[in-house]
Amino acid sequence: MAVQIHRYLRRKVAADPTSPMVYHLKQVPGTSQTHTIKNLAEAIEKKSSLTTEDVIHATSALVREIKEVLLRGDRVKIDGFGIFSLTFNATEVETEKECTIKTINKVNIRFRTDNALRLANESTSGTHGSNDVKFDLALHAGGKAKVRKKTEIPVCGGTTEGRKAVAVCNEAAKPYYYSTKGDGQKGNSAHGIHHTGGLEEKENNSDRLLALTGVNTISQLKPYWENHSCWFRIPNRDESRSIAAKEQFPSDKRIYYQQGEDDTFLLGTLKPEAIITKESGESGGLNEKSKAANRLHITVLVVKRPVLPAISVPKEEEIGFYSLLVKKCHEVCKPLFPEGELNIFLIGEDGSIIKLQTLQSCHSSESS
């Protein structure tokens, strides 16, 4: 079966309105499916003496063993498939004393494909074999390439949710606007146009404040921390240290974020009168921060999100992209909101807010 692809027109440099228009190819939205272990196990059962349950149990055990090997820093080689290995990124520091394991800020799993699994384009492959992929070029009405219309999908903030929204837009090859305070989370994407902005200054009457609003709010809260006792919890990376130093924020008042850190222990150690944080939801740890503060009778100040008005749903043509977006939202939100109603919105090309889907319960089956 051939992979369905189609042509489309876009700017060579998405952020440059004077850039020439060029043709690209991408898979037709809605023509690919996600196959789970259960699906694969059922297919294997038809071709072998193993049952579906046997395959699922063996696969689960294999994944567990691969994880154990990677945690030791070793590699896993599966003949005919590839090699799994552990990699990590660490922040560069100026002194040997600073160069500790705490500078490791990201741990990754690298996969290198085995030669036996490498795929090739059937139309250009010199030797035809089982690894050749057949592509079928689909044309739009009139036999013309699809011209990419101007879209304005705004993604605001370098938060967990913001980065996930950007990942969806990149996967769907949709142009978008990404707004963050600074350039640190700009990333590399041919589909996004990056803008920077800032928060307005907030007032607080507490004498001892722990700010969990991010390093980019140090400048906005400067009139406060210059005259009060204040700590900022910021990411442990060079860019964050540079921003704090530029604003002359005291180094002994900087708390570097550590993955898996216990908020209750931190609050109990610093004993602030109040904390200030952003309305980041479950994925940003708002509930955990609030519960930890409440246990210690510490005031919680929350920078609230604006409320989005609901507008009637217009008819949309690109159903494939919206199906992908709904699916991604469901995957992200399923562990966060086991009960209740979840509304999914998208900004339309005319600036209106499109209500894509309402999920009554994320325990229900995925909607398309």
Write structural notes for this entry.
With 368 residues, the protein is α/β, with parallel strands linked by helices. It folds into four domains: 3-148, IHF-like DNA-binding proteins (HU Protein, Chain A), CATH 4.10.520.10; 149-197, no CATH class; 208-303, Glycogen Phosphorylase B (Rossmann fold, 3-Layer(aba) Sandwich); 309-368, no CATH class. Helices cover 24% and strands 26% of the residues. The protein has eight helices and 19 strands. The chain has a five-stranded parallel beta sheet, sandwiched between helices. α7 (286-295) links the parallel β16 and β17. α1 crosses α2 (52-71). The longest helix has 20 residues, at 52-71. The radius of gyration is 25 Å and the shape is globular.
Estimate nothing, just give the exact number of structural domains.
4
Category from helices, strands and their pairing: alpha/beta
State the CATH superfamily name of the largest domain: IHF-like DNA-binding proteins
The CATH topology of the largest domain, please? HU Protein, Chain A
Strand order of the largest sheet: 15-14-13-16-17
Distance between the termini: 23 Å
Largest β sheet strand count, sense and barrel closure:
5 strands, parallel
Please mark out the parts with pLDDT under 50 across 5 or more consecutive residues, or reply none.
310-318, 361-368
Average residue-wise pLDDT: 77
- Approximate shape: globular
How many helix segments? 8
CATH architecture call of the largest domain:
Irregular
